[in-house]
Specification:
41% of the residues lie in helices and 21% in strands. It has 213 residues and is an alpha+beta fold. The strands form two sheets. Strands 5-4-3-8-7-6 form a six-stranded antiparallel beta sheet. A two-stranded antiparallel sheet has the order 1-2. α2 packs across α3 and α5 packs antiparallel against α7.
Length: 213
């Protein structure tokens, strides 16, 4: 550190970098050890960063990078959508169902990109900006499954009627994308999700993850 630099700002940026380098977040104790400062300092840094949505804390108290980081560069969010669009478009047309990319936003699942099929007579209306609790719907539950199995591929998640009566959902988490928690999925009007849909959703999630790396 030099006389012209801010120690507090430096620590805050180091916190963001540490969190960006982990897929599973860090606790206050872990951050304290890595920064070489006491827990009180870390609490203050996290509280300030959380006010600006640059970090978020899950129910277990682990800190993760927040979606506010995307807002620092206006082009970042559109670029995320742009990177995901080819895989989402292919998924929607192949399955004949509405495909979506969903990211974690606080305690919610937030749809940031949606593609509807062009050839079906009807499909579920699902819009970018739609949000719901992480523990409801396939998109959120797929993300939670990845949290619970951090060293494994949890595959896909199926739900029925949790967000809309008569609608089924299938989703798979994004894996190996540093600093991003999300899932790729489809939602359809059906009594049962066709067997091939799950594997196809996993494939699309892998394609999006590769595009975002």
């Amino acid at each position: 550190m030099t006389a012209e630099t801010s120690q507090t700002l430096d620590r805050g940026l180091r916190v963001l970098k540490l969190l960006a380098d982990t897929d599973h977040g860090l606790t206050v104790t872990e951050l304290s050890l890595r920064l070489g400062v006491n827990r009180t300092v870390v609490y203050r840094l996290l509280a300030t960063l959380e006010q600006h949505a640059l970090i978020r804390r899950d129910l277990g108290g682990r800190a993760r990078v927040g979606l506010g980081v995307l807002g620092l560069g206006r082009q970042v969010h559109p670029l995320v959508r742009e990177a995901a669009m080819p895989a989402l478009r292919s998924l929607a047309e192949d399955i004949g169902a509405t495909a979506h990319l969903t990211l974690v936003d606080g305690a919610d699942a937030l749809a940031v990109a949606v593609v509807e099929p062009t050839w079906t007579d009807y499909h579920v209306a699902y819009r970018a900006g739609f949000r719901h609790a992480l523990d409801r719907g396939a998109a959120g539950k797929a993300i939670l499954a990845a949290r619970q199995q951090p060293m494994a591929d949890p595959g896909y998640t199926l739900t029925h009627g949790e967000l809309e009566a008569g609608a089924c959902g299938a989703a798979a988490p994004l894996l190996g994308v540093t600093g991003v928690e999300g899932s790729v999925g489809v939602v359809m009007l059906a009594d049962v999700v066709p067997e091939r849909v799950g594997d196809r959703v996993v494939e699309a999630a892998r394609e999006v993850a590769e595009a975002l790396r």
